[in-house]
Amino acid sequence: MKPKFLAEEFLLALYFIVFSIVSGLVLYFGQATAGVKLASLTLLFHISFAGICLALRWHTPFRIWKFLVPLSILMVFPDWFLSAVLQILVFPEDGFFKIGTVSGYMAGLWAIPLFICVYTGIKLEEMSVSIVGTCLWVGITSLVIFGTSEATMWVLGSWYAQDVKMWGKVAYYVLVPEMILGITAYLSYQGFSYSAYVFQMAIGFLVMILYIGNLSFFYLLIEKIL
After folding, report:
1. What region does 100 belong to: left with phi over 0, alpha with psi -120 to 50, or beta?
2. What 8-state DSSP symbol labels residue 53?
3. Exposed end of the chain (fewer CB within 10 Å): N or C?
4. Of 49, 174, 190, which is closest to residue 119 (Cα–Cα)?
């Protein structure tokens, strides 16, 4: 049995702590535009994370990361829908290229919080937590992560909500869809992570479509009905 300080969970937590510190330093002291800084940090995450997984032979974290990459790219479409069609999400000019109306680095940024959600679910399952309990905790984790990002990312000039009901800077309509997103990403990984990669990409497409549907439903419910 490996010492605790060499355990995968401990080293992963240490990695995210170090990455968070580096990100804070780059975002605060960096001289580049906000878009370039966020794009650089997103690229740094993917390169460093994949490299560490391969070097330390972390099979599960690497498999989760590989599963989430195409899903993360596809998640540009929900943001595009919200910003170009409903016009309730704004990506201001931040010095980086855009995919439609969405900052290009968003194609890689989604993988970071979704990894935490999926990995949390895997660890809870290993602890023999029931599937209902696991999904509940994954949903709560997803809500905390995405809710925090909604509340803080506007400071960096990355994106912000407009013309919707909000608590501070957090839009109400998006909270339940983001909880469901974390849960569906976890369940999809559990069900299809050993399938052919092209099939994993197709499952990622279905998760993205489900997310767009959830966003549309809860936008209608909260903004137009309630």
Report:
1. left
2. H
3. N
4. 190
